[in-house]
Amino acid sequence: MTIDASNLLRKMFAAAVDAAMPVTRVPAFLPKDLPPKITLVGAGKASAAMAKAVEDNFEGELSGLVLTRYGHAVECDRIEIVEASHPVPDAAGMEGSKRILQIAHGLGKDDLLLVLVSGGGSALLSLPVDGVSLGDKQKVNSELLRCGAAIDEMNCVRKHLSQIKGGRLAAAAYPAKVVSLLISDVPGDDPSVIASGPTVGDDTSLADAREIVERYKLDLPASVMDALADENNETPMNDDPQLSNSTFEMIATPQASLEAAAEVARGYGVAPLILGDAIEGEAQEVGKVMAAIAAQVVAHEQPIPSPCVLISGGETTVTVKGNGRGGRNVEFLLGLSQALSGLDNVYALAADTDGIDGREEIAGAIVTPTTLQRAQDAGIPVSHALANNDGHSFFEALGDQVITGPTLTNVNDFRAVYIAAS
After folding, report:
1. 316 and 328 in contact (C-beta within 8 Å)?
2. What CATH number should be reported for the domain whose range is 5-16+255-419?
3. pTM for this prediction
4. Per-residue pLDDT tens for 86-104?
5. Which CATH fold would you assign to the domain 22-252?
């Protein structure tokens, strides 16, 4: 059977996204013993779609508010949907976060707070601690995004500058019962890292946050440094009594999405190898490693005979040095393509499952054995694109972008490297 490699990779990506859609995942994990009245709040790129799924599957009294990224709203009848900025917070996010915290403070011991959390929630839940302004938080987020920090490091700093993250939302709702439904977009599915863990205890400290600032040499306002030295901004730990009524369910994960993609490959007679759902590191360097593995398969049929596909997830990082239109996934593909050097029979797709790579409304792109030559012919060598972090311009010129629009879910990055039979 002749396989259209690009079509196979796109179908695998679509299956990975479908496996994490709120319309199916939320109903499967809604508590069976819900009271006749619940209050709902949430934040993240999938939160509006999650809220809609709750509405469609709960007939009792329902009210509340969720925050989502601009362009990710879903019309709801009983839940208010507020759109705000991501990845750099804005005033709409801060005002929405303040209202969510007020809702939590207004609950009593007989109430249930259902919290819907997904990737992107950390930037959306922007309610700085006293003494730190919105402008200060915007500066913090911009610095963290540029320096190449891992997501858990970014969220460690964010938590200790927030009135609502790092377990503080659940603490505000105490003694009400808090049930959180989580869609994971982080390596290891750590609930304290997803959206900076607004309803779970935090095992990081102010000292950890200060160490991250120092290690990456972040240029932060004096007000932020003062806040990171203020013991009042320490986050509640897992054994804090105010978190004793808070529980969570992980309703969608990167691993489950990778397994769905692997099943598609098997249907085409292609052997899948899932390399990991939590791969981190500098994006272009991870691309070079994947290229080396692909070359090993081509040369020696190891670690798996062709035709096969190497599948991975996780969140790489990009240390921004240029001023191009970039993102983690296209940076990965640039590094991969450069290292492959036009190797025959190797194709790849890398894309973000939320449909947005970096700040572009573009999920990612596809690499083929002709990518380098076509780029050279077009006068856009891959080395220039890498130096300027300009992956989106590069793949746009080649017509090899993957564009889905907002998917309304988010289980992090999806990468697949297909090696055709020799």
Report:
1. yes
2. 3.40.1480.10
3. 0.92
4. 988 999 999 999 999 999 9
5. Rossmann fold (3.40.50)
